[in-house]
UniProtKB/TrEMBL annotation:
Keywords: Coiled coil. Belongs to the GPATCH11 family. InterPro entries: DUF4187, G_patch_dom, GPATCH11. Residues 69-120 form the G-patch domain. The keyword Phosphoprotein does not apply. This is G patch domain-containing protein 11. Residues 119-153 form a coiled coil. It comes from Caenorhabditis bovis. It holds the Pfam family DUF4187. GO terms for cellular component: kinetochore. It comes from the Eukaryota. One of its GO terms (molecular function) is nucleic acid binding.
Length: 293
């Protein structure tokens, strides 16, 4: 039983061959199969074409052919001395374009739109593209603004965290230095840290119902055991308020104890502090001059 000429085994074995005499019977058979396959594929393609596609294909084929010498137009041109291959028209001295050697390609109008409507549609498309690009640019600018706002917020949050850390360090140092000189209470109540101790429970009898209720009261103390106000949650403060408190406790540490929290050292006196400490802020300690020294 012979193989089907449309099967994959046959088609995959066909190679590109130039036209001419077959080298063998097998070669001739493969060429015939290839030719029938191409014809079948072309027939299938034509059957699947729409009427508009068939009309366009016939029109393109007709326009691609040169002017027939049997046409009346060619006969009129021949009487005026025209021969195949010659160009038409007079060449101007200021015109570099080549003269025509073939008919002007025509564009068939396949719709019922008026003349010039294509230009109008092109302008509308360009306007839509410009509007789309403008909208994209605005969205990109808004995105950049959001990114900038996010970066600013991150910088502010980072700065606040740094200031809070410095304030905590200064309060801890202030407490230790004050206790060294047997100072019982801080200069300002918030200079020292306060710690919450075990809650006290009081039994209160309600006069209305005669029932006993328990009321719990929170109590805070300093590290030396003396009563203290509740610890302040500085995370709820804004940056300006935190910096104000930090500056106040820094001045106290420098004036009373000759201590700098950023240097991490206690100096002998005010002159020693002024001579060896870069300044009373983190910025002065982070400067290049300070690091170079």
């Amino acid at each position: 039983m012979s193989d089907d000429y449309m099967s994959d085994e046959i088609l995959n074995g066909i190679t590109e061959s130039s036209t001419g005499i077959a080298k063998s019977r097998e070669h001739r058979r493969l060429l015939n199969i290839n030719a029938r396959f191409e014809e079948t594929r072309e027939e299938i393609r034509r059957k699947r074409m729409t009427p508009a596609e068939r009309e366009k294909e016939r029109r393109d084929e007709a326009l691609a052919q040169p002017i027939s010498e049997e046409s009346k137009g060619f006969a009129l041109l021949a009487k005026m001395g025209f021969k195949p291959g010659m160009t038409l028209g007079k060449q101007r001295e200021d015109d570099d374009r080549p003269k025509l050697s073939a008919p002007i390609v025509i564009e068939v109008k396949a719709n019922r739109k008026g003349l010039g409507h294509e230009k109008h549609e092109e302008n509308e498309r360009n306007e839509r593209v410009e509007m789309h690009l403008k909208a994209m640019k605005e969205r990109a600018e808004q995105h950049e603004e959001l990114i900038d706002d996010f970066r600013k917020r991150r910088r502010v949050e980072s700065t606040v965290k740094t200031v809070l850390k410095d304030l905590h360090t200064c309060r801890k140092a202030c407490e230790e230095l004050d206790l060294r000189i047997n100072q019982r209470l801080p200069r300002e109540s918030w200079f020292w840290r306060s710690f919450k101790i075990k809650k006290e429970t009081d039994v209160v009898v309600s006069s209305l119902f005669g029932a006993a209720e328990q009321q719990e009261e929170e109590k805070y103390q300093y590290s030396n055991g003396l009563d203290a106000p509740p610890e302040i949650d500085y995370s709820t403060f804004d940056e300006e308020a935190i910096r104000s408190r930090l500056q106040k406790i820094v001045e106290y540490l420098r004036d009373q104890h000759f201590y700098c929290s950023w240097c991490g050292a206690q100096y002998e006196d005010a002159d020693d502090l002024a001579e060896n400490c870069p300044g009373d802020s983190r910025t002065s300690h982070d400067s290049n001059d300070y690091h170079d020294d």
